[in-house]
Design brief:
By secondary structure, the protein is α/β, with parallel strands linked by helices. Helix content is 39%, strand content 16%. An eight-stranded mixed beta sheet has the order 1-2-4-3-5-6-7-8, sandwiched between helices. Strand 1 and strand 2 form a beta hairpin. It is globular, with a radius of gyration of 18 Å. The chain starts with 8 loop residues before the first helix and ends with a helix.
Length: 304
């Protein structure tokens, strides 16, 4: 497969190691500072401009709404952004969402849920449930998506919805989901950080920011511990080289054991969150094409 990163593995590993040391031990960036940096950099990569992007306030929560400039959308994608529960926004995920809109004719909503450490669990999850109650009434074909920590919250939100009488969700899309916050998780034990900007120490810190005084074994905090009964068809993708590959494999197995229809896809040497850069990375283009195909197939089933 074609990759943008034609770099020696040792160079990539050393670069990430130096970056972690600078961020944690030299500069000492806080989650709030990282949030500001990432949001600022995201403005340099807004994605295509032939779609409409706007912020809409719903119940005091900002939601980034992205749709084609003309025509009625075929349905909606409720995209839960990642960022270690502490950063990320509609802007950081705008390029990903814009390409998904172009490929699927869907409208994408990206809620800017409350972030840790200022607002720990379950504040962000409560925000998602509030916005989803509005989202589900706007579209006849409905999908939920999430990447990394957003994948955690997307699964936990769906588990809530399935016990609260919400309208049917027609598909779930997970990109490198972080679904197990326990220190003993397979991802934490293996600590595959050579191609990652974060390592086990980072993951334990981010989990602590998010959980506050709550246990990581609570199913809503670690949704791998929850039920997958009545889950819709689910698309999961991850990179073999990344820290969260083990989490992705674990939720795939749990879903298959529960009888969920799972579409699995993996990259061999992609960096975490590669999907955010479809204008730059060939692996991101592949991902968007695969996700769009999944959405189209599930939408067709819904319309039959």
């Amino acid at each position: 497969m074609k990759q943008l990163w034609h770099l020696p593995s040792r160079f990539v590993s050393t670069t990430h190691s130096v970056g972690r040391a600078l961020r944690r031990d030299v500069v000492g960036l806080t989650p709030v500072q990282i949030r500001v940096v990432l949001d600022g950099l995201s403005r340099l990569h807004p994605g295509p401009f032939d779609v409409h992007f706007e912020y809409v306030e719903m119940g005091g929560i900002q939601v980034g709404c992205i749709r084609k400039k003309e025509g009625k959308p075929k349905g909606g994608v409720f995209l839960v952004h990642g960022g270690g529960f502490a950063f990320g926004s509609a802007r950081t995920h705008r390029a990903l969402a814009s390409h998904l809109v172009r490929l699927t004719d869907m409208e994408v909503w990206i809620p800017e849920y409350r972030l840790a450490p200022e607002c720990p669990f379950p504040a962000g999850l409560d925000d998602l449930q509030e916005i989803y109650s509005r989202f589900e009434n706007c579209f006849s074909s409905r999908f939920i998506a999430g990447d990394s920590a957003g994948g955690n919250m997307a699964v936990a939100c769906l588990q809530r919805l399935l016990t609260s009488g919400a309208k049917r969700v027609h598909g779930l899309l997970l990109m490198s989901p972080w679904v197990d916050l326990r220190p003993s998780s397979d991802s934490n034990r293996q600590d595959a950080h050579h191609w990652s900007p974060f390592d086990r120490l980072d993951m334990l810190e981010y989990a602590t920011h998010y959980l506050g005084d709550q246990s990581p074994s609570i199913p809503e905090a670690s949704p791998i511990m929850g039920s997958f009964s009545n889950f819709p068809s689910t698309y999961i993708e991850a990179s073999k080289e990344e820290f969260l590959f083990s989490d992705s494999l674990a939720i795939k197995k749990s879903m298959l054991d529960a009888g969920v229809d799972v579409t699995w896809r993996e990259e061999t040497a992609a960096l975490h969150a590669w999907q955010l850069f479809p204008d730059l990375l060939p692996e991101a283009k592949r991902s968007l094409s695969s996700m769009a195909l999944f959405v189209d197939q599930q939408s067709q089933k819904n319309n039959q």
